[in-house]
Write a structure and sequence with these properties.
The protein is mostly helical. It has two domains: about 1-75, Winged helix-like DNA-binding domain superfamily/Winged helix DNA-binding domain (Arc Repressor Mutant, subunit A); about 80-220, Up-down Bundle (Four Helix Bundle (Hemerythrin (Met), subunit A)). The protein has nine helices and two strands. It has a two-stranded antiparallel ribbon with strand order 1-2. Strand 1 (about 65-70) and strand 2 (about 70-75) form a beta hairpin. The relative contact order is 0.14.
């Protein structure tokens, strides 16, 4: 039993390191262009370099980290062109997920979506933006999972890290927040009616509205700004 526990520890440590480092990038704690200092990050996360390097490789495959020869790893910049490309693909994925979810979603999954939607609305009513984003994220992922297509789900998860990151950069006004909640009301209603064409349209429009906010935030910040000076540099 002890041997089995020891065998899974490195894998769990690597996954935990990936999740924690991803959150640091997505939430802007590690700014675009920041060099990842392994020593400092290892101390921060309480891990060795081996799981950290595995985490960095994983995040590089997600497009959050850029590996540069003889320069180590940098947090990837979000450019207007890159964001447009990501949202274009995500729009197609979400539309397909909506179509397939209308055909394959189970009653249990629909009940879970209703519960998440209720919780998301409660966070909105309280003005709890982090809580709202958390439930919002779970809703969109569950719709993808309702498709029953694991390739779609895996691709969605991979791209979604950058969408989450871009979202944190955007200034979500109260007006846009209220509109987003109304859009989610319509998305849930369309899925409950299994109205695939309407759900596809709603998901595309919802993501398109999000993209407008994100692009505006990137333009305001200045595309191609100089690399951030990392507080954790040597």
């Amino acid at each position: 039993m002890q041997m089995n526990d020891l065998a899974i520890t490195p894998r769990l440590l690597h996954e935990d390191a990936t999740d924690r480092l991803r959150d640091m990038i997505v939430q802007g704690e590690l700014a675009p262009g920041t060099k990842l200092n392994e020593r400092v990050i290892c101390e921060r996360l309480g891990i060795s370099r081996t799981p950290l390097r595995e985490a960095i490789k994983r995040l590089a495959s997600e497009g959050l980290v850029e590996l540069q020869a003889n320069r180590g790893a940098l947090v990837t910049r979000l450019t207007l062109e890159a964001v447009r490309g990501i949202f274009e693909v995500m729009g197609a994925l979400e539309a397909l997920a909506g179509e397939l979810a209308c055909a394959h979603a189970t009653e249990v999954q629909l009940a879970e979506l209703r519960a998440l939607h209720f919780q998301m609305r409660a966070h909105h009513a309280r003005g709890d933006l982090p809580g709202y984003f958390r439930e919002n994220q779970r809703i969109h992922l569950l719709i993808a999972e309702c498709s029953g297509n694991q390739t779609l789900v895996a691709t969605y998860r991979n791209l979604n890290a950058n969408v989450r990151r871009a979202r944190y950069m955007a200034n979500l006004t109260r007006e846009r927040w209220d509109q987003a909640v109304r859009e989610h009301d319509e998305i849930l209603a369309a899925l409950e009616c299994r109205d695939a064409p309407r759900l596809q349209t709603l998901l595309r429009e919802h993501l398109g509205n999000k993209m407008v906010s994100v692009l505006g935030a990137i333009e305001a910040a200045g595309e191609g700004a100089p690399a951030a000076t990392a507080k954790n540099s040597d």
